[in-house]
Write a structure and sequence with these properties.
This protein is α/β, with parallel strands linked by helices and about 375 residues long. The protein is built from 16 helices and 5 strands. The chain has one domain: HUPs (Rossmann fold, 3-Layer(aba) Sandwich). Helix 2 packs across helix 16 and helix 3 runs parallel beside helix 4. The protein is globular, with a radius of gyration of 21 Å. The termini are far apart.
Length: about 375
């Protein structure tokens, strides 16, 4: 029986998320999650600065005598570039910037990375993926017909960052994640980012070659790094406004805007702007705008008007479609066959998911999460006092 269409009365999330829930007032679970995470992870004004300054002092102490005191991923996008700018100019940290080149960077993204890091005096390490391996893996995910074909890239970048952090004996990873603008993404739209078994199972079923050099981390490596490395979401402790940040980066670093959320990658632009909405009915602008509504960056009316616009220019969509198909080595008819495959999801393939959801790992994870939240709340109270 088809689910009755509903949309949240506070944000824009709707029943395109098959797991969405609404309270008696018609407000969705994503908005409630947003409110909880704001309380647990976000500090504003002087309290946020005090907390960051204390953490920065700790990072510098632990990094004394080392070439770098922290590492961070960079994409050429606004969030990671702003983190690099603040880390260097405001807090005096010595990060190593890490970029994973998966073959899909736009020319503008490459220019943004090179120009901004040069002006900031930040060293860059680039890991270039073996294109034939990665192409085979991306094509396998498209044939798997799940709404998460970006997972190979997401998995690899965190594996590369973790590997480098351990190699340099650096504990801190600076991140551009921001609760205020990135909280409404449904689990059903993208699942399995850290699940190497899931990635392997998709590749075994639909791939052709072997993943000999692809960066990865298994289940125990992932949990080990959760305990030994620390991700620092700098933007959660700053009064971060994306539009103001973009203006600052343009003025100070010569940074250029690339046209949309994650559009610094050609594949991501096409996947989120064409494949997801066309095949699955998922428009990721809906979750990004919903978080911005909750943060007060945009009104619900303005967000609705934005959602009525095309995901990006139809002429560019057509160019991207031809470019992506050619780069992946498939004909137009083969690509259309992929688009018409029955939709599937994470649970249709072997993964660590059922193990993690089992009583042993779930108990460990819930315990670690409870400890993390308690520590975070104590730090927040200390910073506010």
């Amino acid at each position: 029986m088809e689910k009755e269409y509903r949309v949240c009365r506070r944000c824009l999330m709707d029943t395109s998320d098959p797991e969405i829930q609404f309270d008696e007032q018609g407000v969705c679970n994503h908005c409630h999650d947003y409110d909880r995470l704001i309380q647990q992870r976000v500090l504003k004004g002087e309290a946020g600065l005090r907390y960051l300054e204390g953490l920065v002092a700790q990072i510098k102490r632990e990094g004394h005598g080392k070439p770098y005191d922290c590492v961070m991923g960079v994409s050429g996008g606004v969030d990671s570039t702003y983190v690099a700018y603040m880390a260097k100019t405001r807090f005096g940290l010595r990060p190593l910037a890490i970029h994973m080149d998966n073959g899909w960077d736009s020319e503008l993204a490459v220019r943004n990375i090179e120009e901004t890091l040069k002006r900031l005096g930040i060293d860059l390490y680039t890991n270039v993926l073996n294109w034939e391996e990665f192409k085979d893996l991306q094509l396998a995910f498209l044939k798997a017909s799940t709404p998460d074909s970006e997972i190979p890239s997401d998995h690899a970048i965190w594996a590369v960052i973790g590997d480098m952090a351990e190699k340099l004996k650096v504990r801190y990873i600076l991140s551009g994640f921001n609760v205020r603008t990135e909280t409404h993404l449904p689990r059903a739209w993208s699942q399995g980012h850290f699940d190497w078994k899931y990635i392997q199972s998709v590749h075994r079923q639909f791939g052709k070659g072997k993943l000999k050099t692809f960066p990865h981390q298994g289940l125990f490596t992932y949990y080990h790094r959760l305990l030994t490395l620390r991700r620092v979401d700098i933007l959660n402790y700053l009064d971060y406004n994306k539009q103001e940040a973009m203006q600052l980066l343009e003025r100070e670093l010569g940074w250029k805007y690339y046209g949309g959320k994650h559009h610094e990658s050609i594949y991501t632009r096409f996947y989120q702007g064409y494949i997801l909405p066309t095949k699955f009915g998922y428009d990721k602008r809906r979750c990004h705008l919903s978080s911005q509504i909750c943060s007060g960056e945009i009104t619900r009316e303005a967000a609705l008007a934005e959602l009525q616009k095309p995901t990006y220019a139809p002429s560019m969509q057509e160019e991207d479609r031809e470019y992506v198909a050619k780069k992946l080595g498939v004909s137009d008819s083969e690509f259309e066959t992929i688009m018409q495959l029955p939709r599937r999801n994470f649970l249709d393939y072997p993964s660590y998911g059922r193990v993690i959801e089992g009583p042993l790992f779930k108990g460990i994870y819930d315990g670690l999460r409870s400890m993390y939240r308690s520590v975070q709340q104590r730090r927040n109270r200390a910073a506010e006092s």
